[in-house]
Amino acid sequence: MAAVLQKSPVRPEELRLTYPYPAIPEMGEVFDILPGVKWLRMPLPFALDHINLWLIEDEIDAVPCFTAIDCGVGLKPTRDAWERLFAARLDGRPIKRVVITHAHPDHIGNADWICERFAEHGCGLTATAGEYFWGRILQHGMTGFDNDAQVEHFRRHGLSSAMCDEIDRGRKGYFSSLVPSVPKRFFRMRAGDTLSIGGRTWSVRVGYGHSAEHASLYCADLNAVISGDMLLPRITTNVGVWPNEPLANPLKWFLDAIAAYKDLPEDVLVLPSHGRLFRGAHERVAQLQGHHAERLAETLAACVKPCSAADIIPLMFHRPLDAHQSTFAIGEALAHLHFLRDQGKVVPATGADGIVRFLKA
Predict the structure, then answer these.
(1) Residue 2, in any domain of the structure
(2) pLDDT value of position 2
(3) pLDDT at position 15, please?
(4) Which CATH number covers residue 272?
(5) Which residues have a Cβ under 8 Å from the Cβ of 177 and sit 6 or more positions away?
(6) How many domains does the chain have?
(7) Mean pLDDT of all residues in the chain?
(8) Contact, 347 vs 359, CB < 8 A?
(9) Is position 350 within any domain?
């Protein structure tokens, strides 16, 4: 499960954002970006080929150490890159804490592995309860959260039988293949909590829509926010409706969550999970609000005749999509339809063929 689905990216000069670090670290290398904060990248086996991770110099129980923020997928190339880092770039300090922003595989995949790797130093996981238990559920493939439930959900919303069959064949055990295990215990963080990391206070901000209880971390001393997937510079965060919450309105939750970034200083440095570090959070929020307003208007216009979520996908994604991408695309199309449904602008109805379609009210 990739964190986001890449749409056609906007050129940087059109974004009116600033990028204070023009260079990017090679996979498995680290850059010092702020006092005590290191930026590293790890590979992903998707079209979106990287994730940004963060190491913060820390001291826990009087032991100099690192806190890791997110940890990449649990695959050999990523673990090999971590091992090189452990050997050459940690200055002999252990990792004593792993913090995840959320439980998608590229963020939680190595959490248990790192905790076990540094178990003798007391390394443990910190997460919101929603993300921790979501990760545990998906890793175990519980009925109702598994591939069979997803495929049935996609069929009900109009995805073709051929594509559903391809998803059924290709994605069984998908989450557990990228997240081999999840720690059996964790330390809970909640919205409004503060974490002391490296002698500085990082406040926990929680957002919804992209995942169950996504945490971002803001440090006023550094004027920096680790945004996870909630705020990205060039691509839009995936917001989808999934079979375990078939009537959800995640787009509203997401838009409400990103509006809160306007409470931060306008020049806050954003450390996103994908893309480059940037300043211009207020501008980026406005762009995302505008982007979704346009997609909603296009979706509503299409619903002058009954439309399934699958019918809406070509309006949002102007290129062929593979099975992996199609799962995110139909979830996002449905999120826009549900936003309009809850505004009373479209009405859903299930046809004789079992497919749900939406018609302009």
Answers:
(1) no
(2) 42
(3) 58
(4) 3.60.15.10
(5) none
(6) 1
(7) 93
(8) yes
(9) yes
Asked if residue 227 lies in contact with residue 236, where contact means CB atoms within 8 angstroms, the answer is no
Give the integer Cα–Cα distance in Å for 144 and 138.
10
> Could you report the per-residue pLDDT of 160-170, keeping only the tens digit for each?
999 999 988 87
- How far CA 327 is from CA of 67, 287, 299, in Å, comes to 33, 25, 18
* Containing structural domain, residue 194: 12-360
**Residue 112 to residue 201: CA distance in whole angstroms:** 25
- Residue 4 maps to a domain: no
In a domain, 6, yes or no: no
pLDDT digits (tens, 9 = 90+) for 313-352: 999 998 888 888 899 999 999 999 999 999 999 999 999 9
Strand partners, 226: 217, 271
Phi, psi of 3 (to 5 degrees): -70, -30
What are the pLDDT digits (tens) for 171-180?
A: 888 899 999 9
Cα–Cα distance between 187 and 178 in angstroms, integer?
Answer: 23
Q: What is the pLDDT of residue 202?
A: 98
Residue 28 pLDDT > 90, yes or no?
no
**Residues pairing with 321 in the sheet:** none
